[in-house]
Input
Amino acid sequence: MLGWFKKKFGKKEDPSTPGTTDEVVEKKSLSEDNNTTFEKKEPLQPEPVLSIATPIKTDKVVAEVTTQQEDVTQAIDTVRDTLFARKTPVKPAVPSEAITTSAIDHTPEIANPLPQKPPIAHQPPRAIQPADAAQAEKTDDDPEKKDSLFSRLTNRLEKTRESFTYQMDALFLGKKEIDTNLLDSLEELLITADLGVGLSEELIDYARKKVKRKELSDPNGLKDILKKQIKKYILANEADAALVMPKSGPFVIMVIGVNGVGKTTTIGKITHKFKQAGKSVMLVAADTFRAGAVSQLKIWGERNDVPVISQADGADPSAVVFDALSSAVASNVDVVIVDTAGRMHTKDNLMEELKKIKRVIGKKMRGAPHEILLILDATTGQNAISQAQLFDAAVDITGLALTKLDGTSKGGIVANICRNMNVPIRFIGIGEQLEDLRDFNANDFVDALFQSDK
Output
């Protein structure tokens, strides 16, 4: 920048000086007349035209350039002080005579210094407060936690409520009596919600009898009747739903189902439940055919910090199970969960393989498997009932787990399964988190299903 100032405002020398003019004039005179006798002439005075450079006062130009340079320097200093000296607190001006060497050498304090954190090693452990202790003592029976779990269940059944409960409320809106048209529309709604034709007809026939005997006339009362009857069907299979641990040896669970229903994921979540209850768990990778099945189960084993027994791909599943049970008995494991390959319920040879695995478990350990858990995808609707019936005919299933209930609008399949199968529902899946595999409770499920908040 200073170079630019010198070019624009610097002193310029006039190319025409008096000395140069004299020489030019003398040479011109000699060239015009070589015969003229040389006479010494008086030095010529500068022409008036050449006096243009005379008014330029160099002292004034230098002063202006110096002043502008000082202004630029002062501006640069101001910007620099603003950028780099903000943290230094501004103090009032001090007379020059009061400045001493000690004052100059003194380092200014940083404005608003950050508080220093004490070393973590020296911090005393935080004592457990009463609120923490109360929180730690909360169980599923705690009213506050129970309300939270119920709210979560209600929210996850939102799709089913939109297609069932809210539609029912809209159907009853403005109706003052129960007539044939109302009952026919209600029956169609029940079938749409996947309660099935048989169960829907039974519910409507029960309501017709109530209306005929003058025991029911209010449409709102009709909703209560349906709720009680559906709960009755589900509770009929819930009496023996509790898992009973054997007196000695590991508790063996054999998990079965078709491909894609979420068997391995459900196994991981069940393992988490047993670990939370203080039980030791071993997983058995008896799905030796599906690519990635063993590695997927091992991931869940690492997540829950439990061992996974496996062999090479293509190994005999029954041999894998036999070796795993021997290891479980030697290690005094509490629970053994066997993951089997997914298979279509219509393939007889694959169903025979399940029977073989069951026989091997029974020979190795008397009374085992103690639980044969069938995993069903709730989004498949009525097809889930066909799967359950064929698997039950092959290996006598003892429990059901319904997955993906949060992703379907056909939650009525739960009541339909309970009506057609004399098998209790152990678990329901309402999300992807570990805690989203819930122990099935008929009262909570039906209450959440019929919850009206619109």
In short: The beta strands are 251-256, 281-285, 308-309, 335-339, 371-377, 399-403, 425-429, 437-439.
